[in-house]
Design a protein that fits this description.
The chain is an all-alpha fold and 92 residues long. It has one domain (2-48, 55-88). Helix content is 77%, strand content 0%. The protein has 4 helices and no strands.
């Protein structure tokens, strides 16, 4: 469940940063940082809940990849919205 929340935050971050007028690469980069921060917070700040070996390095690599894809989807969705909005406005 926390991963789903982090993925929703990643998508929303990409969407909101792009809608604020930032460039696509910057919005993608900023949204891609949400998941690594979440994984590191879970590994080092929250109390340890597991039993065996710590798997946070593997989770960091895999979830960062997935987070960058989801953040990119947010940026693409915002860019699509901005392009539609720009094309729908009549010229004055």
């Amino acid at each position: 469940m926390p991963l789903i929340i982090a993925l929703i935050l990643t998508f929303t971050a990409g969407l909101m940063v792009r809608l604020k007028g930032k460039s696509q690469p910057l919005a993608w980069l900023l949204s891609s940082l949400v998941i690594p921060i979440f994984v590191l917070f879970d590994a080092f700040i929250l109390p340890y809940r597991g039993g065996g070996a710590s798997m946070w390095p593997i989770a960091l690599v895999i979830e960062s990849f997935v987070g960058s894809l989801v953040g990119g989807l947010g940026v693409v969705a915002a860019s699509y919205y901005l392009k539609k909005k720009e094309n729908s406005q009549p010229d004055a």
